[in-house]
User: Fold these one by one.
Assistant:
Number 1:
Amino acid sequence: MNIPIRAHHDEGHRPVHRESLALLLKVLNEHSPGVLEDLNRVAHLATATAQSLGLSDYEVERVELAARLHDVGKLAIPDDILNKPGPLDAEEWAIMQTHAEIGARIVSAAPTLAHTAVLVRSHHEHYDGSGYPDHLSGESIPLGASVIAVCTAFVAMMRHRPFSDAITVEEALDELRRCSGSQFDPGVVDAFCELLRLALA
């Protein structure tokens, strides 16, 4: 699937960003080997979607960085919860949900990545307000976080997991459309689906 990304240039796009990013990603990959492949897919899709929505170069870069770091808070989640081969119970799910807040605190500690913290914190918010951690809804959810939410859901659906079979691209897009307006921002879903339609044409 070839989804083109336009080059974006911004004075904030500095090597020091990449040094901090590389360090955190190395720690993530040591903790969960193989995770970088999914993070790269999410970042690629999120960057292209952000560009298709007309976001500025600064915002596109912020989305890209946050997409790569959105799950960094899972470093603090116990392995028996993170790697459980079946659905989580209520207590485990409550612990899992803390990863968004923890991730925001982690990236906030790196001055060159702190601008991504709000997107990391909000990537599990739902358009109808049923998400976490702050129960934001509609346009109160940062647009970049809504982009990451759609892209992470798509990548997750396309991946085989012990308790859930992978599905086709069309089935994944249908599921995004089904959840448009409830879990996902309708404008982001429309932009993402159009992006995939053009890539698959």
Note: The chain has a mean pLDDT of 90.
Number 2:
Amino acid sequence: MKPLRKTINRALNCLAGVSFLAMVSLTCWQVFTRYLLKQPSSWSEELVSYLFAWMSLLGASLVTGERGHMNIPLLAEQAGPGTQKALSVFAGVIACLFSAVILIFGGVQITSLAMGQMTSSLGIPIGIFYIILPLSGTLNVIYTILNITDILHGSLPRTEAEEADKEAV
């Protein structure tokens, strides 16, 4: 399971870096065309907004894989180790169901509906940009299954961020 997680993490980190670099480059291009050429580039502005959405959803998937999503551990910290494990598995199952129903099922529905609509500046189907919803949902499902498996086998008792903090001390 670790090689799969490592491969997905590496791919997402690479995509995040490329996306961020593209966003910075396109934003600089926008500034150049708007203030120096006096002819704003509308297509680059539209593409930056779509890239931002893609980067955000892929980043959320990466956070899901690291179990770094926001939580309120007040109740879990009061419980024993068995209950903590059960609560962690329950949280993973809920996250998995949410990703499957909202992101994958809903994402496929909205993507197929949006394939008939064209973007205003780029002139390509909007559904192309909505593909990130089921893709991100699939990544979330994979990550939550990996997390649940690791929790049940006792190899991932806490979040990776907490483990790194514990090792630093």
Note: The chain has seven helices and no strands.
